[in-house]
Amino acid sequence: GAVVSQHPSWVICKSGTSVKIECRSLDFQATTMFWYRQFPKQSLMLMATSNEGSKATYEQGVEKDKFLINHASLTLSTLTVTSAHPEDSSFYICSALQLSTDTQYFGPGTRLTVL
Amino acid sequence: GNSVTQMEGPVTLSEEAFLTINCTYTATGYPSLFWYVQYPGEGLQLLLKATKADDKGSNKGFEATYRKETTSFHLEKGSVQVSDSAVYFCALSSDYGQNFVFGPGTRLSVLP
User: In this structure, which of A20, A46, A60, A77 has its CB flanked by the most CB atoms within 10 Å?
Assistant: First the structure.
């Protein structure tokens, strides 16, 4: 199946700093990628849809100035959590849409801990 | 809007028991249906999918049939293993892989 990677797999940072998370589709090109957030023992919450070469579309309630998304190539999308606070600590998961199968393939997730 | 309902967990089974995790959906049109599995500390892995009515998705001994008349996509496995312990998410897409809607997830624990 299609493979999507994320980096880093976990990160610990101080409050007020910024953290960048990368999402890559390794064996297919993805014009559309998605960023989700998952709280412990809960389902995934879609944060934003990232389209290559254009601005991301954010879900209601997600601050676009805090969660910066860049999709500069067909295989890479990045999520930058700016001025992180402890309440931003969470598990962030990306996915990439494979158009040939109309299927989202998910990355392994990034656990962010803000001290 | 579209929605997915799953049976509440956790589900605890003994090894080699039969597994059923119910999933029903509400959607306009003809959505594609998916089951994803999440192992502890990991992202989601596609388990199986079905794109039209009466399609059966299958993988690793798991099966699910797209039942439009009952708007259901129940996950089944004839004999579970300890390694199947994970959280299972039912999901639908009504727009060619976009506009995914996930169920709340069902945690499965298989005891030796």
Answer: A77
User: What pLDDT, on the 0 to 100 scale, is given for residue B74?
Assistant: 98
Q: CA–CA separation, A68 vs A81, rounded Å?
A: 7
Q: Which long-range contacts (CB under 8 A, 24 or more apart) does A7-10 make?
A: A7/A110, A8/A110, A9/A108, A9/A109, A9/A110, A9/A111, A10/A110, A10/A111, A10/A112, A10/A113
Rounded to an integer, what distance in angstroms lies between the CA atom of residue B21 and that of residue B38?
Answer: 15
pLDDT of residue B37 exceeding 70: yes
State the pLDDT at residue A99.
87
B106 bridge partner residues: B88
Q: Which 8-state DSSP code applies to residue B61?
A: T
Mean pLDDT of B88-107: 87
For chain A (length 115 residues), average pLDDT per consecutive 10? 91 97 94 92 89 90 94 93 96 93 91 96
Name the DSSP letter for residue A52.
T
Opening angle at CA A44, ends B43 and A51, nearest 5: 85
| Residues of chain A that touch chain B, judged by Cβ-Cβ distance less than 8 Å | 1, 4, 6, 32, 34, 41-44, 46, 49, 93, 95, 97-99, 101-109, 111
Choose the closest CB to B42 out of A32, A44, A108. Answer: A108
